[in-house]
Design goal:
With about 300 residues, the chain is an alpha+beta fold. It has helices at about 20-35, 45-55, 100-110, 120-125, 140-150, 220-225, 230-240, 245-250, 255-270; strands at about 5-10, 75-80, 90-95, 115, 170-175, 180-185, 205-210, 215-220, 275-280, 285-290, 295-300, 305-310. It has one domain (about 5-310): 4-Layer Sandwich (Glutamine Phosphoribosylpyrophosphate, subunit 1, domain 1), CATH 3.60.20.30.
Length: about 300
């Protein structure tokens, strides 16, 4: 089977001055994941490698450079899901893990549970050889400045112009037909401590089913949770008959694109929220949709070249 990879760095109001940083981060994530897939490697290694690149890049809201919560701390969430077994590993509200996707994979591979949170997740990391970092290592001065402005006034988007960064995610299909999806985030600025959004929730921020496809979501977490967007997309990929008329009306080139478009329309119509998603169908065909001004994403073309937006 021909491998496939798609990644994203969030759907948001990416300013012109941040476009090249986003494109560079997406390109490096694709390079990391595709190096594995093109050599016959496993999809789980590819999505982890791609997301680690994005977590380490302060351009995005995951790992280093994540938004601060109400108490001025970073709390991180991540998930990875296997389309063959429907098993997932997820972590939420961790403060001392530099690469949450690695801990999510550890939960996936070594725990009988599918989600661990807070101090328990950090203890699980230590027991399984994942080093903890001081929370301060994850905080950038730009986020401290924005957080202070929110405290002095009220939380407002204008405090984050130029760095209102986004959640990250990846979906990969390897040469053995294994399909994996993953998502990682620092959440929203000034969120209440302990708040968990859509990203680590199975069916919301991420879902993979080898019979349909794999999805990673991004955007307003509470809105995405209301419509269980990732699961909705995979269900439609599995049985797209309900989309036949919509596909003709929208002019979508593929079923996958029609599915992505339909889910984002539902997000706006029923949840009155903004966001986007990336997906691979079960054959590895990519698609992406969003209702924000821009979304940072990219995928590998059949000729192994990279297609990157914005």
């Amino acid at each position: 089977m021909t491998p496939s990879l798609i990644v994203h760095g969030g759907a948001w109001s990416i300013p012109d001055e941040s476009v090249e940083d986003c494109r560079s981060g997406i390109r490096r994530a694709l390079e990391a994941g595709w190096k594995i897939l093109s050599a016959g490697g496993a999809a789980i290694d590819a999505v982890e490698a791609a997301i680690v690149v994005l977590e380490d890049d302060p351009t995005f809201d995951a790992g280093v450079g994540s938004h601060l919560n109400r108490d001025g701390r970073v709390q991180l969430d991540a998930i990875i899901m296997d389309g063959a077994t429907l098993k997932a590993g997820a972590i939420a509200a961790v403060e001392r893990v530099r690469n949450p996707i690695r801990l999510a994979r550890c939960v996936f591979e070594k725990s009988e549970h599918m989600m661990l949170v807070g101090a328990g997740a950090e203890t699980f990391a230590s027991v399984n050889g994942i080093a903890l970092c001081p929370p301060e290592e994850l905080i950038l001065e730009r986020e401290r400045i924005a957080w202070r402005r929110c405290l002095e006034d009220s939380h407002a988007t204008e405090h984050h112009i130029g760095h209102e960064s986004g959640t990250v995610g990846a979906v990969a299909l390897d040469s053995q037909g294994r399909l994996l999806a993953a998502t990682s985030t620092g959440g929203t600025c000034c969120k209440f401590p302990g708040r968990v959004g859509d990203s680590p929730l199975i069916g919301c921020g991420c879902y993979a089913d080898a019979e349909g496809g794999g999805v990673s979501s991004t955007g307003h977490g509470e809105g995405i949770m209301k419509i269980v967007m990732a699961k909705m997309a995979v269900d439609l990929l599995h049985d797209p008959r309900a989309l036949s008329a919509h596909r003709k009306d929208s002019g979508a080139a593929t079923i996958g694109q029609a599915v992505a478009d339909a889910c984002v329309r539902k997000l706006a119509h029923r949840a009155h929220a903004t966001g986007g998603l990336i997906l691979l169908d079960r054959e590895g065909a990519p698609a992406a949709a969003f209702n924000t001004p821009r979304m940072a994403y990219g995928f590998v073309l059949p000729n192994a070249a990279f297609k990157i937006a914005p």
